[in-house]
Design a protein that fits this description.
The complex is a heterodimer of chains A (about 90) and B (about 1000). The longest helix of chain A is centred in the middle third of the chain and has 8 residues. Chain A is globular. Chain A is built from one helix and six strands; from the N terminus they run E-E-E-H-E-E-E. With about 90 residues, chain A is mainly beta. The model of chain A has no long low-confidence stretch (mean pLDDT about 95). In chain A, the strands form two sheets. Chain A has a four-stranded antiparallel sheet, with no helix packed on it. Chain A has a two-stranded antiparallel ribbon with strand order 1-2. By secondary structure, chain B is α+β, with helices and mostly antiparallel strands. Chain B folds into six domains: about 160 residues, Roll (Ubiquitin-like (UB roll)), CATH 3.10.20.440; about 200 residues, FAD/NAD(P)-binding domain; about 120 residues, 3-Layer(bba) Sandwich (FAD/NAD(P)-binding domain); about 140 residues, Probable tRNA modification gtpase trme, domain 1 (Gyrase A, domain 2); about 90 residues, 2-Layer Sandwich (Alpha-Beta Plaits); about 100 residues, Aminomethyltransferase beta-barrel domains (Elongation Factor Tu (Ef-tu), domain 3), CATH 2.40.30. Chain B has 24 helices and 50 strands. In chain B, strand 37 and strand 38 form a beta hairpin. The model of chain B has no long low-confidence stretch (mean pLDDT about 95). The chains are: A mainly beta (about 90), B alpha+beta (about 1000). The interface between A and B is medium-sized, with 26 and 24 residues.
Chain lengths: ~90, ~1000
C-alpha cells in the first residue's frame, strides 16, 4: 500500500485516497471552438507512461482536497506531492 | 502408546505436562512444547499423508516452515481447518488431526494406483491427458481431478472465530529472531529506536537453539534468552513470537500474521484467533535465515528421508529421535553436526559424504567420537515403501558421473544436507533484484530497493561471528540515523567450530538399468524426469518450466525445491544458474487464513450499514428492507400474509388514489453556497440555471465529459447564494467528488463551497391526489395551495415547532411534496405525517412501489442512467441548452450520438397483458431467427402497472423513436421466456404531466 504525503494533512495510507488520473491534462476552456482531435485528447487519449507521472489523487477520507502526486509508475516511488494550485517546475 | 523415540532427557519441551491428541482417530501422547510433528515422530509415526499426484506415502521432511509434506486437516474446538503444517502446529490437549489427499485411509490409498500409472502422468499431464475428447471435460475429467486434487477440505460452516487487524508504525521491523535478528534488535533498541522483532516460531533464537556455539561465555540458547528477556522489558520494543512477516509491499509496508490462539485448544474469551499486522517501518531488517537444501537421489521422497537440520531440531528442541539407525548423507559439514548430536545421545549414525577428503574441526570431532564416515559415497536410492528400511549406497567417481558397486545397508532414516539456501523471499518481494553467490551456490539479495537490509544466513553469511558483527552494526547504524543516539554495544566473544567448503554436488546419477524417481519438488511430485521432459518439449524460461511441471508451486512455493530445479535446468541447458534466473517470489511466504485477511469485516460488518432516522418506525411497522448501496431501505410494508408483489401493488395504488409517504432520506444532498453557485450549476447541468428564482426548484441532468449521463436530480435555490442539490442515492459520493474536482482543479476562480448534507436532513415524500390536503394539516399556517406553492416551488416552514423545508417535486408523477427536517426530527415528522394522514388513508410505501410508480410514469432512474446512455436515449434532450456550454457538451456531436436510429427509451407491454417481462431481457425482431439473434434493445425496468393493471416495462431500444406501435419479442434465455410485446410510449400514465401540476 502506498504512503502518500497529503500536502494538507501529512503522510497517509493509500486507502484514504482515490486516484484521479493524469494531472497534466487541461480541460479546454468553456465556449471555445476546438477541434475533434483536441477534444478527444482531453477526454480519451492518455499516455500509459512507464516512469515519472504527474497524477491527481483526492484525499477522499481526509481533507477531500484534490492533490498532485509525482509518482514512478514502475517502482511506485513518490518524488513529491503538491497542492492543486501549487506551481510545479 | 509409549513415546519410544523420545530420549530420556533434553529438549525444550515441558515434560511435566503430558498432552493427549488424536491422529487419524488413534490416541497418542506428547508434551507441552511439542509440535504435532515432533509428537508423532516421538510415537514412531512417520506416515502422515499421500502425495499430490502419485499418492506416494508422505512423512516428514522438515521441522518448520520448510515442510513440504506433512500437511494435515486440523480439528479444533468443533471447527476444521485444512492446510496445516504438522511441523508448525503446536500440540495442545485434545488436538485432532487427519491425513489429507488419501482415500479411504493413509495406509491404504486407492489413488496410489497413480504411482503405478506414473508413466501416464508426466510433466504437463493436465494439459495433455485431459484435452480429448472435449466432451469428456465436464463429465469425466473435471470431477476426477476435483476429487483427486487438493490438500484438505475447507469448512463450509460459518467461522465463529475472531480475527483482528492492527496498524502499526515503527523505526525498525526485524523479521526473524535468530542471531542476526537478536543482535540487530538489541543494538537498535539500545539506541532508543522503536523496534518490532517478529519470530514465526513459538521460541525465539532461531539456529541458536540447535547449534553448538558459545556467545559471551553462554550457550547460544542462553544468550538468546537473555537478550529476549531484556528486549521484552524495554518500552520501545515489541517482541512477538508466533508472528510471521509474510509480505513486503510498497513503501515499506509489511504484513505480519500473528497466530494468537492457534496453539491453544480454544480461543480465550475476547481474544482473536489470529491478528494481522500492517506495519509501516522506516527500516526493515530481514533476518529470516536459511533453509537446508535436499540432495536428490532415487526415491528420495520415502518417509524417513528428511533434512539433516530437521533431524537435529527434533533432537535438540523436542528430545525426539527421527530414527535409531540413521544414515546421514551430506555434501557439507552440516550433516556432521546432526551426526554428532545423534552420537551424543547414544545412537550410531553413518555419514556418507560426497566429498573426497574434506577436513575441518567438525569433521575431526566426528572422527574423534568414533562416527563411521564414508567419503566419496552417496545414497543411490532409498528402499522401503511407507518408511525407509535400507539404502542402496555406492562410491561415486570424482567427476560425480560414475557409480561404483551398489551396496545395501540397513537404516531407518536418511538425513540429507545439500548445503543452505538463504530465505530471500522478503527481500525479493521488496523489489530487490537478487544476485547469485557462487561460493554458496545460491541467490542472495542484491542492491536494496526499499529500506531493507538483509542479514546473516538470509544474506548468505553462515558463520556466527560475521553474522553477529554485521547485525550489531546494522542495528546500531540504522537506529542512529533515526534517533541520533549512538550507544556502542560491546561485541561478545564468539566460539564456533570452523567448517570446510561444501561441494557443488546435488544430484546422484541413476545407476544403469534403474529408473528411480528422483524428486525435486516434494509437495508437487515433480521429479528430475519431469523437468527433463519439459525442456525436451521446448520450455526454456524457468517461469514456463515452473508452470508446465508445477515445480515450486502451491503452498510450498519451492522452499526446498527451487535451487535444485534451477541447477537441473542449468545443467541440461548448459547455462550457469544466474542465467536461468529464479521464479518470482510472491507473498504470502506461507499460506495465511482467509479469516485473517478479512479480519472483522465479515457479515454485516463487511460494510457500514446506514439507516434513516425513521428506521425504527419502519421496523415496527413490518417493513421488509432492501440494501440500497450501504443504506437499508424499506422495500415494502407487509400486511398479513402479503407477498412482495401484492404489497407493492397495494402501496402504489394507494398513492395513485389517496396519498402515500416514502422515506427518501437516502437521496444524496449537497449544500452549495457562494456568489458563483449559479454559475457552477450552469456549467454542471445541461440546462440553464442562471435565472432560477429564489424559492424555486429545477430538475437537472449532469453529464460526464464523454457525454454520458452521470446523474439527475433537483436543485433548489434556498436563498440568493445558497442552493440545495439532490442526487440519486447511488451517485451521491461521486457527484460530490465531481463538483470538488471542477471547483478545485478546473475552475478554482469560482467562489463556491460544496458540502454533503445527506445525513443532516431526513426526507419524506408525500405523494398522491390527497397529498395537498395532508400538507394543509401538517402546515396549517402556510398557504400550500397550487398558487401558494406551485409545482417546483419551495418554502420553509414550521412543523409543530420543528424547522422544515417543503419542496413541491414529484418522482411518482402524482401531486407530491418532499418534506425535509433536521435528522433528529425525522422520526417526529414521520409520525406526524402518519397520524394526520389517517383521514386521507395515508400508507407508507417502499422502494418497490416507488419503482412501480416511476416506471409507469416513464421517469428514468439508475437502470436507464446506466453509464451507457446519453440525454437523447432517456428522452432528456429537451433539457440541453443550446445557448451555453457545460460539462460534456462537446462530446454530444459524436457520430454515434447523433445517428438517426440512435437508441431511445420506450414502453413495452406484453400482447397478452399478463406475462411479466424479466428485467435484462433482450428485444428481438424475430424470436425464431437463428442464433446469434440480433438484439435491438434491452428491458431496463419492469413493473405491474397499477394504473392499467397489466405488466409494463421500460426499454432502451434502437431507433426507439420510430418504433412506437411495433410488435417485437422479448427474449430471456436465462428465464427461458419468449414474450410477444408491443412497443408504446414510455409515458404510460398521464403523458401530459397534468397531475404533478394539479
Amino acid at each position: 500500500m502506498l504512503h502518500i504525503k497529503c500536502p494538507h494533512c501529512g503522510m497517509r495510507s493509500q486507502n484514504e485516497f482515490s486516484y484521479g488520473g493524469d494531472a497534466s491534462i487541461k480541460r479546454p476552456e468553456l465556449n471555445k471552438e476546438i477541434s475533434d482531435e483536441e477534444w478527444d485528447n482531453f477526454v480519451y487519449n492518455r499516455k500509459s507512461l512507464r516512469g515519472k507521472h504527474l497524477e491527481l489523487w483526492q484525499h477522499l477520507s481526509g481533507c477531500r482536497q484534490w492533490i498532485k502526486v509525482e509518482r514512478d509508475t514502475a517502482t511506485h516511488e513518490i518524488f513529491n506531492t503538491y497542492k492543486a494550485d501549487e506551481e510545479i517546475f | 502408546m509409549t513415546q519410544k523415540f523420545r530420549i530420556e532427557n533434553g529438549g525444550l519441551i515441558n515434560r511435566d505436562k503430558k498432552l493427549s491428541f488424536k491422529f487419524n482417530g488413534k490416541t497418542y501422547y506428547g508434551y507441552e512444547g511439542d509440535t504435532l510433528a515432533s509428537a508423532l515422530i516421538a510415537n514412531g509415526v512417520h506416515l502422515v499423508g499421500r502425495s499430490f499426484k502419485y499418492h506416494r506415502p508422505r512423512g516428514f521432511f522438515g521441522a518448520g516452515v520448510d515442510e513440504p509434506y506433512a500437511i494435515v486437516q486440523l480439528y479444533r474446538n468443533n471447527e476444521t481447518e485444512p492446510n496445516i503444517k504438522a511441523t508448525e502446529q503446536e500440540l495442545f490437549e485434545g488436538l485432532e488431526a487427519k491425513s489429507v489427499n488419501c482415500w479411504p485411509s493413509v495406509n491404504f490409498d486407492i489413488g496410489a494406483i497413480n504411482n503405478f500409472l506414473k508413466i501416464f502422468l508426466p510433466a504437463g499431464f493436465y494439459y495433455k491427458t485431459f484435452m480429448w475428447p472435449k466432451s469428456f471435460w465436464y463429465r469425466v475429467y473435471e470431477p476426477f481431478i476435483r476429487k483427486a486434487a487438493g490438500l484438505g477440505v475447507a469448512s463450509t460452516k460459518h467461522d465463529k472465530e475472531r480475527y483482528e487487524h492492527k496498524y502499526e508504525y515503527c523505526d525498525l521491523l526485524i523479521a526473524g529472531s535468530g542471531p542476526s535478528g537478536l543482535a540487530s534488535a538489541y543494538a537498535a533498541a539500545k539506541n532508543g529506536a522503536r523496534v518490532i522483532l517478529a519470530e514465526d516460531k513459538p521460541r525465539f533464537g532461531g539456529s541458536l537453539l540447535t547449534s553448538d556455539v558459545n556467545i559471551g561465555n553462554q550457550s547460544g540458547e542462553d544468550w538468546a534468552n537473555s537478550i529476549i528477556s531484556e528486549l521484552k522489558e524495554m518500552p520501545n520494543v515489541v517482541v512477538k513470537n508466533r508472528s510471521q512477516v509474510f509480505g513486503y509491499y510498497d513503501h515499506n509496508m509489511l504484513v505480519m500474521s500473528e497466530k494468537v490462539s492457534d496453539h491453544l485448544p480454544k480461543t480465550k474469551k475476547y481474544h482473536p484467533k489470529q491478528r494481522l499486522w500492517y506495519i509501516r517501518a522506516k527500516e526493515v531488517l530481514i533476518s529470516s535465515g536459511s533453509i537446508e537444501r535436499p540432495l536428490v537421489f532415487g526415491n528420495n521422497d520415502t518417509p524417513g528421508v528428511m533434512l539433516s537440520s530437521a533431524a537435529k531440531e527434533y533432537l535438540k528442541v523436542y528430545g525426539v529421535l527421527v530414527g535409531k539407525n540413521p544414515l546421514v548423507f551430506t555434501n557439507n559439514d552440516s550433516g556432521y553436526e546432526t551426526a554428532i548430536e545423534f552420537k551424543k545421545n547414544g545412537i550410531n549414525p553413518i555419514i556418507l559424504d560426497s566429498r573426497v577428503n574434506p577436513q575441518s574441526e567438525i569433521i575431526d570431532e566426528a572422527i574423534n567420537l568414533g562416527i563411521k564416515i564414508k567419503f566419496s559415497h552417496v545414497v543411490v536410492a532409498a528402499q522401503g515403501y511407507k518408511k525407509v528400511s535400507s539404502a542402496d549406497i555406492a562410491k561415486i567417481s570424482d567427476d560425480k558421473k560414475q557409480l561404483g558397486t551398489i551396496e545395501n545397508i540397513k537404516c531407518d532414516c536418511i538425513c540429507v544436507s545439500g548445503f543452505w539456501t538463504p530465505t530471500i523471499h522478503l527481500a525479493s518481494q521488496s523489489g530487490n533484484k537478487t544476485k547469485f553467490k557462487e561460493e554458496i551456490d545460491a541467490f542472495v539479495p542484491g542492491t536494496s530497493k526499499q529500506n531493507e537490509t538483509t542479514l546473516g544466513a538470509a544474506n548468505g553469511i553462515f558463520t556466527l561471528e560475521e553474522t553477529l558483527k554485521d547485525s550489531f552494526m546494522a542495528g546500531q547504524d540504522l537506529s542512529k540515523k533515526i534517533t541520533n543516539n549512538d550507544n556502542k554495544i560491546p561485541f561478545p566473544n564468539v566460539v564456533e567450530k570452523k567448517s570446510s567448503q561444501h561441494e557443488k554436488f546435488w544430484c546422484v546419477p541413476l545407476p544403469k538399468g534403474k529408473s528411480y524417481k528422483r524428486f525435486l519438488d516434494f509437495q508437487n511430485d515433480v521429479a528430475v524426469s519431469d523437468v527433463e521432459i519439459a525442456l525436451k518439449e521446448g520450455y526454456r524460461s524457468i517461469e514456463h518450466v515452473k508452470r508446465y511441471t508445477t515445480l515450486g508451486m502451491a503452498t510450498d512455493q519451492g522452499k526446498t525445491s527451487n535451487l535444485n530445479g534451477l541447477q537441473l535446468v542449468s545443467e541440461i541447458e548448459n547455462k550457469v544458474v544466474p542465467a536461468v534466473g529464479h521464479t518470482t517470489f510472491r507473498p504470502p511466504y506461507t499460506p495465511i487464513s482467509i479469516g485473517a485477511i478479512v479480519g472483522r469485516e465479515v457479515g454485516k460488518h463487511s460494510k457500514p450499514t446506514r439507516k434513516s432516522p425513521m428506521h425504527l418506525w419502519h421496523e415496527k411497522n413490518n417493513a421488509v428492507f432492501v440494501d440500497a448501496g450501504v443504506w437499508l431501505r424499506p422495500r415494502y410494508y407487509r400486511q398479513g400474509s402479503e407477498t412482495l408483489f401484492e404489497a407493492s401493488k397495494r402501496e402504489a395504488k394507494n398513492v395513485r388514489t389517496n396519498v402515500g409517504v416514502c422515506d427518501v432520506t437516502t437521496l444524496g444532498k449537497i449544500d452549495i453556497k457562494g456568489p458563483d453557485a449559479a454559475e457552477l450549476l450552469n456549467r454542471v447541468y445541461t440546462n440553464a440555471w442562471l435565472k432560477l428564482p429564489v424559492g424555486k426548484a429545477r430538475y437537472g441532468v449532469m453529464l460526464r465529459e464523454d457525454g454520458i449521463v452521470m446523474d439527475d436530480g433537483t436543485t433548489t435555490r434556498i436563498s440568493e447564494n445558497h442552493y440545495h442539490m439532490t442526487t440519486t442515492t447511488a451517485q451521491a459520493a461521486n457527484v460530490l467528488s465531481h463538483l470538488e474536482y471542477y471547483l478545485q482543479l478546473v475552475w478554482p476562480e469560482l467562489n463556491v463551497n460544496v458540502v454533503s448534507t445527506t445525513e443532516q436532513w431526513a426526507g419524506a415524500a408525500i405523494a398522491g391526489p390527497k397529498s395537498r390536503k395532508l400538507l394543509e394539516k401538517l402546515f396549517p399556517n402556510n398557504d400550500v395551495s397550487n398558487e401558494g406553492l406551485p409545482f417546483m416551488g419551495y418554502m420553509e416552514s414550521d412543523l409543530f415547532g420543528v424547522k422544515a423545508r417543503i419542496f413541491r417535486i414529484s418522482f411518482s408523477g402524482e401531486l407530491a411534496y418532499e418534506v425535509n427536517v433536521e435528522s433528529d426530527n425525522g422520526h417526529f415528522m414521520w409520525e406526524k405525517i402518519i397520524e394526520l394522514g389517517q383521514e386521507f388513508q395515508v400508507q407508507p410505501y417502499g422502494t418497490e412501489a416507488l419503482s412501480t410508480l416511476r416506471i409507469e410514469m416513464g421517469h428514468v432512474a439508475g437502470s436507464e442512467l446506466d453509464g451507457r446512455t446519453i440525454s437523447y436515449d432517456t428522452s432528456l434532450e429537451g433539457l440541453i441548452s443550446k445557448k451555453k456550454d457545460f460539462i460534456g457538451k462537446r462530446s454530444l456531436n459524436r457520430e454515434a450520438f447523433t445517428s438517426s436510429d440512435r437508441q431511445k427509451i420506450v414502453g413495452v407491454v406484453p400482447l397478452d397483458k399478463k406475462t411479466s417481462i424479466p428485467e435484462g431481457s433482450h428485444l428481438v425482431k424475430d424470436a425464431k431467427a437463428p442464433l446469434p439473434n440480433k438484439k435491438l434493445g434491452h428491458i431496463s425496468a419492469s413493473c405491474w402497472s397499477v394504473e392499467h393493471d397489466n405488466p409494463f416495462s421500460l426499454a432502451i431500444l434502437k431507433n426507439g423513436k420510430n418504433m412506437i406501435g411495433e410488435k417485437l419479442f422479448v427474449m430471456s434465455p436465462l428465464k427461458n421466456k419468449i414474450i410477444p410485446v408491443e412497443i408504446v410510449s414510455s409515458h404510460y400514465v398521464d403523458p401530459k404531466g397534468e397531475r404533478v401540476r394539479s
